TrEMBL record:
It comes from Roseibium aggregatum. It catalyses: tRNA(Trp) + L-tryptophan + ATP = L-tryptophyl-tRNA(Trp) + AMP + diphosphate + H(+). The gene is trpS. The keyword Cell inner membrane does not apply. GO terms for cellular component: cytosol. InterPro entries: aa-tRNA-synth_I_CS, aa-tRNA-synth_Ic, Rossmann-like_a/b/a_fold, Trp-tRNA-ligase, Trp-tRNA-ligase_bac-type, Trp-tRNA_synthetase. This is Tryptophan--tRNA ligase. Pfam families: tRNA-synt_1b.
Length: 359
């Protein structure tokens, strides 16, 4: 190979409902990439057991639901590979190897682990601690070059780059000897001339990289917030969407006409960002239209837009989930295609490390 093949990898955990943050920050942004490069979208069910094991049957229905959401949002199984992580053995195998590449100190700095483990860190699973290594394995099992995600995944992607860098350096001679490397596209003193793993580019762009809670503009919209009013779920009907936006926390001032007027106004900033992402506009454009308006005028406009954009998606998700056999067929086909890419990469990695391959 003379260069890394441009390849996108991203994923969502099948834990609970998908919300507007997942849609605007990630899934909706994947859709146009399908026409630009090879795209692989995964439902990361191995990650979904790191906090606790879901009840019997829950993982299956949540996995099918996330798959349906991907497709309803416009991910086309004819253009992209769609599969669930546990079906491709390479993820767990490479994650183990990365457990031996990553350093305790690197993982100890992960803010998401600290948040998720909370005060009771001693009782968190080892899987939760090693979670970012599995994420690096997801990406690098395909030598993926681009990863579109929301802002909360930034630190995990930096760790993925660190793992790739350390592996490339530690095994530089072996990679060269075996002739499996690719010339480093961006030569630097920190890296050898030939790389096995690409130094992945995070794609964290647009007005919706961090959608905040509707109840508190300083907290991220999340599946785990106890208040359902804090988020818009992709399964919400029109009435609940409108109600949640009506009840969204705001301040008493009118909307500013310039971006800098949103400083120090997290709730206003969030709602303008949501409007912009749903409309496909910039925040500046939204403020051009709504600057000077009160929230009493802006909120109904936002609710109408959200319903218009999300109702067809919800309907399509419902249609797709009513045929689980078809979803399973798509996932099976995707898993076969994914394994066909990842298996030879894992075979190289085993050779690079030096395991005795007896087969
Ligand atoms: P997860 O399942 O928490 O979230 C899926 C995607 O949604 C984005 N996101 C948000 N974006 C904007 N505003 C929000 N409030 C918001 N909440 C979530 C996330 O950034 C993410 O892009 N570790 C990942 C899943 C994963 C992965 C990977 C992603 C596993 N392996 C490999 C990319 C590549 C996660 O838990 O995402």
């Amino acid at each position: 190979m003379t260069a890394f093949q441009p390849r996108v990898f991203s994923g969502v955990q099948p834990t609970g409902n998908l919300h507007l943050g997942n849609y605007l920050g990630a899934v909706s942004r994947w859709v146009p990439l399908q026409d630009q490069m090879e795209t692989i979208f995964c439902v990361v069910d191995l990650h979904a057991i790191t906090a606790s094991f879901p009840e019997q049957g829950e993982l299956q229905s949540a996995t099918r639901e996330v798959t349906a959401a991907y497709m309803a949002a416009g991910i086309d199984p004819k253009k992209s590979i769609i599969f669930n992580q546990s079906q491709v053995r390479a993820h767990a195998e490479l994650a183990w190897i990365f457990n031996c590449v990553a350093r305790m100190g690197w993982l100890s700095r992960m803010t998401q682990f600290k948040e998720k483990a909370g005060k009771n860190r001693e009782n968190a699973s080892v899987g939760l601690f090693a979670y970012p290594n599995l994420m690096a394995a997801d990406i690098l099992a395909y030598r993926a070059t681009h990863v579109p995600v929301g802002d909360d995944q930034k630190q995990h992607l930096e760790l993925t780059r660190d793992i790739a860098q350390k592996f490339n350096n530690d095994f530089a001679d072996r990679i060269k000897e075996l002739g499996v490397g690719v010339p480093n596209p961006t030569p630097s003193p920190e890296l050898p001339e030939e790389l096995y793993f690409p130094i992945t580019e995070p794609m964290i762009t647009g007005p919706a990289t961090r959608i905040m809670s509707l109840r508190d503009g300083t907290k991220k919209m999340s599946k785990s917030d106890p208040s359902d009013l804090s988020r818009i779920n992709l399964t919400d009907d029109a009435d609940s969407i409108a109600k949640k936006i009506r009840k969204a926390k705001t301040d008493p001032d009118a909307l500013p006409s310039e971006i800098k007027g949103l400083e120090g106004r997290p709730e206003a900033d969030n709602l303008v960002g949501i409007y912009a992402a749903l409309a496909g506009h910039t925040k500046e454009e939204v403020l051009k239209d709504f600057g000077g308006e009160q929230f009493s005028a802006f909120k109904p406009a936002l609710a109408d837009l959200a319903v218009a954009k999300l109702a067809p998606l919800t309907k399509e998700m419902r249609r797709l989930t009513s045929d689980p056999a078809e979803i399973d067929r798509i996932l099976k086909d995707g898993a076969e295609k994914a394994a066909a890419i990842a298996d030879p990469i894992l075979a190289d990695v085993r050779k690079i490390i030096g395991f005795l391959d007896v087969a």
